[in-house]
Amino acid sequence: MISQFFVLSQRGDNIVFRDYRGEVQRATAEIFFRKVKFWKEDGQEEAPPVFNVDGVNYFHVKVVGLMFVATTRVNLSPSFVFELLQRIARVIKDYLGVLNEDSLRRNFVLVYELLDEVIDFGYVQTTSTEVLKSYVFNEPIVVDAAHLSPLGPAALFMQGTKRIPGTAVTKSVVANDPTGRRREEIFVDIIEKISITFSSSGYILTSEIDGTIQMKSYLTGNPEIRLALNDDLSIGRGGQSVYDYRSSIGSGVVILDDCNFHESVRLDSFEADKTLALVPPDGEFPVMNYRMTQEFKPPFRINALIEEAGILKAEVILKVYAEFPSSITANTISLQMPLPKYTMRASFELEPGAVGQTTDFKEANKRLEWNLKKAIISYHGFYIVGGCEHTLRARLTFSQETHGNITKESGPVSLTFTIPMYNASKLQVKYLQITKKSGSYNPYRWVRYVTLSNSYVARL
Amino acid sequence: MSGHDSKYFSTTKKGEIPELKEELNSQYKDKRKDAVKKVIAAMTVGKDVSSLFTDVVNCMQTENLELKKLVYLYLINYAKSQPDLAILAVNTFVKDSQDPNPLIRALAVRTMGCIRVDKITEYLCDPLQRCLKDDDPYVRKTAAICVAKLYDINAELVEDRGFLESLKDLISDNNPMVVANAVAALAEIQENSNRPIFEITSHTLSKLLTALNECTEWGQVFILDALSRYKAADAREAENIVERVTPRLQHANCAVVLSAVKMILQQMELITSTDVVRNLCKKMAPPLVTLLSAEPEIQYVALRNINLIVQRRPTILAHEIKVFFCKYNDPIYVKMEKLEIMIKLASDRNIDQVLLEFKEYATEVDVDFVRKAVRAIGRCAIKLERAAERCISVLLELIKIKVNYVVQEAIIVIKDIFRRYPNTYESIIATLCESLDTLDEPEAKASMIWIIGEYAERIDNADELLESFLESFPEEPAQVQLQLLTATVKLFLKKPTEGPQQMIQVVLNNATVETDNPDLRDRAYIYWRLLSTDPEAAKDVVLAEKPVISDDSNQLEPTLLDELLANIATLSSVYHKPPEAFITRVKTTTQRTEDEEYAEGSETGYSESHVADGAASPPTSSDNVPYAAARQPGPAATPTQPAPAAPVPDLLGDLIGLDNAIVPVDQPSTPAGPPLPVLLPASTGQGLQISAHLTRRDGQIFYSLLFENNSQIPLDGFMIQFNKNTFGLAAAGPLQVPQLQPGSSATTLLPMVVFQNLSQGPPSSLLQVAVKNNQQPVWYFNDKISLHVFFTEEGRMERASFLETWRSLPDSNEVSRDFPNAVISSVEATLDQLAASNMFFIARRKHANQDVFYFSAKLPKGTPFLIELTTVVGNPGVKSAIKTPNPEMAPLFFESIEALLRV
Questions:
Q1: Do A123 and B145 lie within an 8 Å CB cutoff?
Q2: Would you say residue A327 lies in a domain?
Q3: Among B27, B252, B332, B761, which residue's beta carbon has the most beta carbons within 10 A?
């Protein structure tokens, strides 16, 4: 069981502090903050997420710039505490709509009420927003969601296309709509994070998709939901090693390495027709997490080259190919490439007619940055569109002679991006069925896909 | 409601407290509620609003749950400082615990349990009894946790009122939430008790396994962790358990997955069928890998656990090495752990892939990570003989990039590779020598110098290379100086020409006359003497073949690994330390310091009534005394200070004129080994017999005690006190002895500190002890202090420094004594025995038909004892001579060694 729970701002201010057992001194928040801020142990400068100071164990996670911390004196399960801290953040976000320092401060009474129901004497009672609703009576004061850094990947849809109502993500599950009416709607988001490492010759060394099917329900009366996935979905590589799974390429079958499910999910008919049945509790939660290493078509290919071009000079050529259909647009694409430490200057040359691209040489950490944010191809569109290709040339000037090894001293190139309405795994929600209460009951259903980069790297 | 809560933080001109007081007594409900919110707001920012206690409590009788909760929150905070006023709330609590609304009933019990005021505790029992049998599961689950709260305040009360039985009944409750809380509460109570309270029988096991399927994710973790203590009777039962736990591996909650893994690993130890085991390994691998897709914090936990699991079952993830490749955006703490596991999983089959990764990491930006990657390559070379050559060529490639810290790190690992594969890869020395002048880190320099010295005969210009270092000899760090000294001697022995001869003069001069580092000086003198008396012998010593080193990537000792594996999914498995190394939870009963008190530093607030009431608690909260701090992770921590003194005028402190704390009794702890000498016979102690002696464990001194109650009455409230003594021995913590029923006994290990309680006068081995309990007069008895319990683990001396010390002490410091009856019959046994008492064997010499043994030992504060034992092995008669700066301790030493030799 945990002894204390607290939330600290980036400056170390105590925003929330709850002591459940009175067995640890109150100064822990200060001790913790100082320790994390000036961490220097085992040759590392970043504190691990759990450590022990004078017999007190501190666990922390960072959520939207806030530090959620728990302390204990006993030999607790750390994954338990980390899950709990994330879950507390999520519950508070469900209630407040927006989680940040301001909303926490304004709603402190509600937050304390929640914390008392979530944890008793250090033992977790429930973290289900649904269950908590029966015990929690304060109402949230909703803060303005604009200009706030949102929580969780679903927040992407706020900046996404116009088809999706932007407010949904920051809506409290309990607060009354200003219009006095609650809209019946349910969101199902398929969020995939891609990790890829390309070798210098463009060959894929490792590739992985971490996916989540996330749900947020605003349906009244808790109807049962059925989610149907691809018919030919299969799970487990059947003991094959990573070295030979590629035999499955091209068959079109989606093979997941592993997956797990939220506790509300019933898998009775999963084997037979790949359908998940559940009564979604209120609040945001992952219905299913999955992991795939089966080969898939990467959305971007990167070609990077660095060559010496005379004394104290070198040239960098970066190419990005968007390998998805032209009906899809990606946004916020950014390439970064560490350059040799003795690089003094970099001059850039974009392709003729390039619009909306920015380049930068970060002097401090010797890094090249190339942003292809919105507005690329004149007035045809304002995003990177599938099928296109972009090139950047950069001339570098060095302050010292190279050792003839500049490829080793630069790179790897990393790419970050988001692609709405696209997923690389081809996992699909084929239909989303809501048990009807009456003929006229027809809530809004949103099934949304998004793909993000996790570690998307090309080596030189 | 309207507006937002931050308005409650605003202050007004009138003076906050009077204004709040007025509002709290308003006739309007809403106004009262707002006022309570303001009070809570003030409380959370640390303002003292305790003076409003009565006014807030007056708002308690309300049907409004929101308001009631706020008042309760206030009460929990301030009841401690206003215990008399808190009584005012009792009636409402008791009434609320019978309210028709289950939420209010639960709230009342929950809050009462949090108010740690004795008088309230009495009133808690009846409502708790009712609530444990309540119709509503929400009330029952709250009551279950409340039993644990009450146990923490007053364990006896819980046992007397039969709450433990009620709690056990709740294990069979039809509501899974209630079951989970009952399990959690019982597990905690068991943890703090040494009687078997919560034993898991095969019957409870099957009940809990059934409940598992219906519990919330958190309840599943409680249950799985409680069940992990269960030992299956046979392989069949183990298989059954595993079968029912395996579906948990598919849970989205990582804590559930890891707790299930722990359970399965434990049961697997009993399963004999290799097919079943192989199958289970196959099932566990994907969920373990999936943990690496969770948040980085959980990845870190998973990686630390996987590190242990693959040491026991290397096959489980043998094919998954790719998932441990570092992502560029992994936090550094994740990357470092991944590297460790990559080394562990590296095999001849995947080494090429692994090397490719390491090579890439070694050119990244983060210096610490790069260094670790370079070391990883070296460790792979040492681990995989067939891949050593490939590893070395990668290291050479990296050296060519000429990044300073990469080069230095590479040289350090190459030195180890040379030691692992002597006479194999020396051809690369030339390449290494090219980087010589860029080395600026001691370890790298020392490694390079070692290489030059070791292979001096193959390096044409070895003398020049070493000479280049000699100029700066006095400025070099000790590590480099030592290596330079040895390397120059090696060079001289291998190439006894003029150049090296001059060099050796310079070095020896520098290392003897010019230095004040004793290690360096000792080593130099030994070389000097060796070289001047017998150069051939010098060759045998200095150029002797070195033992081949081995791979250290499976570095955990098997016993430690066993213990850590039994603690998978806990902090212990993340720190890679056994729980007792960092858990300092000493049970405190009524004396818990409230936060506010601590913040104000009101240490004197420990009221005398607590000490005197005999139910007894330590004079200080164990939560924050330095003693607790001293037991933080790390080997052999010694307590730094005793508990602060509490003014206790009526206790035996006065009787024997002592001035430090009386240490009261709390609870028993682990028993000691062999029978203890009886110090207070039952005939003297009115039936109470006490046996005790001092002992040293893990670098700390303990007083091991056995209490036997042969009287007709139960004895409790034990306290102990030590009179001033030569070593200033005093108790470091409370004496932990439970109530002793007639005919029962208890043992305990009392941690001791030294230099606290020093007596004047000549050294004496006398230790006067006083023990008190609530039923009998104070008992006094004498013990003998054995000097060897003070000998520290740091007492081992190098031969050279032993000789040096021996020589530096005047002959008048040598004292000897004969023990005509002592016999050393087995040299090995005696050496072991003395080593166990931190007397370290230095050398053995034959003198006529006698054997002479030399040992070193050190007292705390570093006083050395040089010991010489002369005897004819197997015959009676041992002569012991010692030399020490402190010869007045000699009689004590002889007492002690005589006792040791007699055993």
A1: yes
A2: yes
A3: B252
Q: Which of A59, A120, A246 is most worth mutating to test chain B (most B CB atoms within 10 A of its CB)?
A: A120
Sign of CA dihedral B803, B806, B810, B814: negative
Superfamily per CATH, domain B5-229: Leucine-rich Repeat Variant (1.25.10.10)
| CB contact A126 to B (< 8 Å) | yes
DSSP state of B492: H
What ipTM was predicted for this assembly?
A: 0.88
Chain B environment of A365 (Cβ under 8 Å): 365
CB contact under 8 A, B250 and A135: no
Give dist(CA A398, CA B519) in Å, integer.
47
Whether the CB-CB separation of B515 and B503 falls below 8 Å is answered with no
Assigned architecture for domain B611-785: Sandwich (2.60)
The answer, for A41 touching chain B at a CB cutoff of 8 Å, is no
Tell me which fold the domain B793-902 belongs to.
Answer: TATA-Binding Protein (3.30.310)
Subunit contact A260:B403, Cβ cutoff 8 A: no
B628–A365 CB contact, under 8 Å: no
Q: What is the largest CA-CA distance in chain B?
A: 106
Chain B residues in contact with A257 by the CB 8 A cut-off are 286, 289-290
Q: Which residues of B touch A110 (CB under 8 A)?
A: 5
Q: What is the CATH number of the domain that holds A49?
A: 3.30.450.60
Per-residue model confidence as pLDDT tens digits over B749-792? 888 888 777 777 778 888 888 888 888 888 888 888 888 888 88
- CB contact at 8 A, A306 and A366: no
Q: Which range of residues forms the domain containing residue A398?
A: 300-420
Domain residue extents for chain B: 5-229, 441-548, 611-785, 793-902
Residue with tokens 């993000």: A452
Judge contact between A88 and A68, C-beta under 8 A: yes
| Count of beta carbons in the 10 Å neighbourhood of residue B89 | 27
Position with higher pLDDT, B902 vs A421: A421
Contact B571 A55 (CB under 8 A): no
> DSSP 3-state assignment of A222?
coil
Residue in chain A nearest B39 by alpha carbon: A109
Residue type, B80: K
Q: Does A407 touch chain B (CB under 8 A)?
A: no
DSSP state string for A133-189 = TTT------PPP-TT----SGGGHHHHS-TTS-GGGGG--SSSPPTTS----EEEEE
Of B403, B571, B629, the CB nearest to A57: B571
Residue A26 has pLDDT above 90, yes or no: no
Query: What are the pLDDT digits (tens) for B423-460?
Result: 888 889 988 888 888 888 999 999 999 999 999 888 88
Beta bridge partners of B75: none
CB-nearest partner of A457 from B328, B356, B624: B328
Alpha carbon distance B147, B308 (integer Å): 36
Contacts of residue B594 in chain A, CB cutoff 8 Å? Answer: 22
Closest Cα in chain B to A143: B4
b or e along A283-298 (b: 16 or more beta carbons within 10 Å of the residue's beta carbon)? Answer: bbbbbbbbbbbbebeb
Which residue type does B760 have? Q
Mean per-residue pLDDT for B404-417? 92
Q: Shortest Cα distance from B2 to chain A (angstroms)?
A: 9
Which amino acid is located at B364 in the chain? Answer: E
Cβ-Cβ contacts under 8 Å, A291 against chain B:
286, 289-290, 293
Interacting residues of B753 by C-beta distance below 8 A, sequence separation 6+: B638, B639, B640, B641, B642, B701, B729, B730, B731, B732
Letter for the amino acid at B647? P
**Rounded distance between C-alpha atoms, residue B274 and residue B313, angstroms:** 13
CB contact under 8 A, B297 and A259: no
